[in-house]
């Protein structure tokens, strides 16, 4: 049985949640929801707050709702009235929108709150974590057809084992440790397969620039990913290699257009510009 969730202003988790909740309650966040086509913004705010609490304290949605109904201090902290949504209401409401729509809301909010001066070169850290949904798999069979309707898949991770849920990829600014991008994938696709998509999102939103450095763990290891980072995005991808990695093999796979070897400076510059813009 889980312990009671008692609000403590000295608890670092509650302190961090308080900062996050202020952003969620802000007019900027609510305006972003409206622009992205979200209806019933009040329910969206409540749902996201409850889901954040499940992640921070490793509780299920139903457990957090029980604690909110029990504790007036917890309700005051979250800004909830006595009308607490039920577990069914939370899942029904959240299922109205796709993972892509949630990513757009989060990334737009990050861009509005984290406007920083651009330095010459930036460094970023990319990592992914599995996020399981609150399903009781032992007592209730979940069919593949039902999961498809909810846009969910079975996945596997070394930390959670087999689970139903998502893989959340977060990119942080290495100096400030502030998230600059969040991507959500149903199930648990291999990190190496979503490498290109991560960089594509960063480039599309003009977060990464030429010669920036991005750090990835071994999950993103693949020879082609080194090539994609260097040739396609013109950044330096530092991917921690596995035991089978050979630098000679990587160099042998790298190929360059003939313009690279041109003595004409304008030709070289034209190649660099066209490569980055494409």
Description:
With 278 residues, this protein is α/β, with parallel strands linked by helices. The protein contains 12 helices and 6 strands. Strands 1, 2, 3, 4, 5 and 6 form a 6-stranded mixed beta sheet that branches. β2 (153-157) and β3 (161-173) form a beta hairpin.
H/E element string? Answer: HHHHHHHEHEEEHEHEHH
Terminal residue distance: 55 Å
Which structural class is indicated by helix and strand composition?
alpha/beta
**What Rg is obtained from the alpha carbons, in whole angstroms?**
22 Å
Keywords:
single chain; 278 residues; alpha/beta; 6-stranded mixed sheet; globular
Provide a brief overview of the structure:
The protein has 278 residues and is of the alpha/beta class. The chain has helices at 12-24, 27-35, 41-57, 61-70, 72-78, 87-94, 99-113, 144-149, 195-204, 223-232, 247-253, 265-277, and strands at residues 123-132, 153-157, 161-173, 179-186, 213-216, 236-239.
């Amino acid at each position: 049985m889980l312990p009671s969730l008692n609000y403590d202003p000295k608890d670092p988790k509650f302190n961090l949640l308080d900062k996050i909740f202020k952003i969620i309650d802000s007019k900027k966040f609510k305006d972003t929801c409206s622009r992205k086509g979200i209806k019933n913004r009040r329910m969206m705010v409540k749902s996201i707050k409850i889901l954040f609490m499940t992640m921070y304290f490793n509780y299920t949605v139903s457990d957090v709702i029980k604690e909110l109904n029990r504790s007036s201090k917890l309700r005051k902290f979250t800004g909830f009235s006595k009308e607490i949504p039920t577990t069914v209401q939370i899942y029904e409401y959240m299922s109205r929108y796709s993972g892509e729509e949630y990513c757009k809301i989060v990334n737009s909010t990050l861009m509005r709150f984290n406007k920083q001066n651009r330095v010459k070169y930036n460094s970023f850290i990319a990592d992914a974590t599995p996020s399981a949904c609150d399903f009781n798999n032992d007592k209730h069979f979940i069919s593949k057809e039902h999961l498809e309707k909810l846009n969910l898949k079975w996945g596997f991770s070394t930390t959670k084992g087999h689970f139903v849920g998502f893989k959340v990829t977060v990119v942080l600014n290495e100096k400030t440790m502030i998230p600059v991008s969040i991507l959500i994938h149903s199930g648990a696709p291999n990190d190496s397969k979503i490498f290109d998509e991560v960089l594509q999102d960063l480039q599309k939103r003009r977060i990464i620039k030429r010669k920036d450095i991005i750090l990835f763990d071994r999950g993103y290891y693949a020879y082609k990913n080194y090539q994609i980072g260097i040739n396609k995005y013109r950044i330096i991808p530092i991917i921690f290699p596995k035991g089978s990695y050979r630098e000679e093999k990587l160099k042998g796979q790298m190929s360059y257009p003939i313009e690279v070897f041109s003595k004409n400076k304008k030709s070289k510059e034209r190649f660099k510009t066209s490569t980055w813009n494409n």
